[in-house]
Specification:
It contains three helices and eight strands. It is of the alpha+beta class. The chain has one domain: uncharacterized conserved protein from methanopyrus kandleri domain like (uncharacterized conserved protein from methanopyrus kandleri fold like, 2-Layer Sandwich), CATH 3.30.1860.10. Strands 5-1-2-6-8-7 form a six-stranded mixed sheet. The protein is globular and about 35 Å long. It starts with a strand and ends with a strand.
């Protein structure tokens, strides 16, 4: 399952997605840190299936996305919203940040 949350802005949607088992963890590699404990409220929206998450995102409405975890990142790549080269990892956990300039 995936936590899925949307924030509406005047420039489009901000989407936050995080694989369920990662929420509450702090990932660090010495250069950077991804705090999914302190910022769990940002990601903790509705708990949905992969198919549900996949059907909810589209490039037309997307302004920014913060996506953490193998399943969540895979959905963005499959939908053509990100490429493998966009993926960063921390403690072997993939994540992407997408920013559209509109």
């Amino acid at each position: 399952m995936i936590y899925f949350k949307e924030y509406e802005t005047d420039k489009g949607l901000i989407v936050a997605m995080c694989d369920e088992e990662l929420l509450g963890r702090v990932l660090a590699d010495g250069r950077r840190e991804l705090d999914l404990k302190m910022y769990s409220g940002f990601y903790k929206g509705e708990l949905v299936t992969e198919d549900s998450a996949r059907s909810r995102i589209s490039m037309e409405e997307l302004y920014t996305a913060n996506v953490v975890g193998k399943r969540s990142v895979r959905i963005f790549i499959e939908k053509g919203l990100a490429q493998e080269s966009d993926v960063l990892t921390i403690q072997d956990i993939p994540f992407i940040h997408i920013f559209r300039i509109v």
